[in-house]
Amino acid sequence: MPATADPRDYQHMTEQRHHPQLQAEQARDRRTDIWAWVAVVIITLGFFIVDIVSEMTDGTYAGEPGRWQQFVLFDGSSIVVLFALFPVLLWLTRRWPLSLQDWKRIIPIYALASLIWSAIHIAGMVAIRKVLYPLIFEGLYSFNRAGGFWLEMLYEYRKDLLTFTLYLAVIYAFRHMADLRREVQTARTEARRSSRITLKSGGSTIFLDAQRVDWARAAGNYVEISAGGTVHLARISLTALDEQLQAAGTDIVRTHRSWLVNRARLREVRPTGEGDQIAILQSGEEVPVSRRYRDALAAS
């Protein structure tokens, strides 16, 4: 330990490293990345199988029924190296995460990384081909075709850039979904602990006393929530809101596929004469009650 270092700094670093919540978050991140890897494998192998079948068919029509075997070697060697390099992309996106605030700085880093990643990919697949080609076919494998080395590199990089972008998109898609699930779980835990619900509205976060909620109505990708005479618009699903309110101890009931009502605000329920009903709230507001949810409301 350097003479100028404060021992408390090392103690703080050790506590962070062994903090149970931090370890749980890191474990969740690893699981997310593993699922992203699985998705990439499935997508890539799916394209590979389709291309093999196409090569077999095209080769038969062209009078070259064995052509698909070279295709398997060439594309198979590429795929093996791509899978081996996937952890590099996981590290890259953790080390330099892309965000709306930093994209101008991060995009050039990703562009440079794509060049290095492609060069390693090309070198790896060419090495595999040079070893296996003479064992399976006659002659030696040559990377240089009629266009020359640099034209071949450009041709391969064009394909690698698409693959690089696709893999990054898969990684970020899985992490985004994991973040959304985490937000839902955190909001539910907070609702259970404090009896408040957490809502996202634009760039703001709204905290509402769950017991003050009168009703909620789905509005496209948003939900309108009436609480204490004020209507809030939040980006949340009606199901997720229902779960938060239930966790907060609110006696909430779904009266329609697009409506939730606080039972404590109900004054009466009237038939419409067409098989459906209307719930009248203490405020005088009317909420539809469909046949599907009529029994749930009657259970109150």
UniProtKB/TrEMBL annotation:
Spans through the membrane: 34-53, 73-93, 105-128, 161-178
Gene Ontology terms for molecular function: DNA binding; phosphorelay response regulator activity
InterPro entries noted in UniProt: LytR-like, LytTR_DNA-bd_dom, LytTR_MHYE
Ranges of compositional bias, category Basic and acidic residues: 1-18
Official protein name in the record: HTH LytTR-type domain-containing protein
Provenance organism: Aquisalinus flavus
SMART domains, A to Z: LytTR
Keywords, alphabetical: Membrane, Transmembrane, Transmembrane helix
Entry keyword Disulfide bond: no
